[in-house]
């Protein structure tokens, strides 16, 4: 058993210890997961961390790299190494296998500058070109069904915002929506935590809602077939977007504010408004969005609440995590030694609380490779097979199909 397999096994044991399913529930849940179309509504394809990658990062550190260059290299390695490093490819293949996931809605950049977004985009295209036998780009639900039938995996492209929003004129920013649709983008955030020219994000103390330009952005997304995502948007921005959108929309990776109060969660009013568009709300696997130190049980509690509120047709799982192995036992990545800029995506109370929670989504019950046990947990809580299939992938595919139909694509 290699390091990735060992990490996955320990995470499975933690999930099972918390769930304690009966043998019949375990067997049925694992079989249902295996035969279903499983699509993460907002997740990251498995990452790798090999000896060669660690050595390269540490050399960069020793050479006096800037923080931006060091972070970009680390991100590039996680995405690219599997395309040309056998060890990295094996790590990722194991994670895909253990998760039993066919597809993910993968962030490929944004909301920064256009050139930075294109650079990150290009890495995924490189991997898809080099590894068609394992992974491909997806733009339609049929791509997922084909990948499942052929024993492969696929990724939809998502963006954390409109690229170039603060470096181009409004008309050019609107055109970016269509340009990136042509490149494969099928979901896009309106805001990322903070305020932008579209609207207020979820951590802003104000609650100004969608701007006039924001209404234009929602309309353009509807017209070209991009799913409007408000996972990081403020409450009024979310409500305004739901009222403005002529197509189903989403909060792809969030939690229920009524279950646990966190700014990244959605209120009952927001959830109902999203459901009224025909859209979906994806429950995440981030521990401190779910509870003080959330586990797989807390994630299932949020799903239960969501389904009771708006029904299983509007529920999904958008983990917002990915599987990353530990590096070599005798060699660790050295932290960047220089100063880091202030993290303005969160208020101080969010930043100070995050390090104090468990590492449940990396090595515990919420690890991405525990996806089969998310399904087991739903079976254990009495969901029908049809409703489980909707929650673990079917609803996302339905919404993407409906967004495309609304745009006549």
Question: What topology does this entry show?
Answer:
Blueprint: H1 3-19, H2 23-35, E1 39-40, H3 51-62, H4 67-80, H5 86-99, E2 103-107, H6 114-130, E3 135-137, H7 141-149, E4 153-159, H8 170-182, E5 185-189, H9 212-224, E6 227-229, H10 235-244, E7 250-254, H11 268-276, E8 280-283, H12 287-290, H13 296-310, E9 315-317, H14 348-353, H15 360-363, H16 371-380, H17 385-406
Parallel strand pairs: 1-2, 2-4, 3-4, 4-5, 5-6, 7-8, 8-9
Structure explained in plain terms:
With 409 residues, the protein is α/β, with parallel strands linked by helices. The protein has a single domain (3-174, 278-336, 344-406), classed as TIM Barrel (Alpha-Beta Barrel), CATH 3.20.20. The chain has 17 helices and nine strands. The strands form two sheets. Strands 1, 2, 3, 4, 5 and 6 form a six-stranded parallel β-sheet that branches. Helix 8 packs parallel to helix 9 (212-224) and helix 10 packs parallel to helix 11 (268-276). The termini are far apart. The model has no long low-confidence stretch (mean pLDDT 92).
Strand content: 5-15%
**Major beta-sheet overview:** 6 strands, parallel
Q: Can you count the beta strands?
A: 9
Proper CATH architecture:
Alpha-Beta Barrel
Oligomer state equals single chain
Class by SSE composition: alpha/beta
Number of helices: 17
Number of domains: 1
Features:
9% strand; 17 helices; 9 strands; six-stranded parallel β-sheet; TIM Barrel; single chain; three-stranded parallel β-sheet; globular; alpha/beta; 409 residues; 49% helix
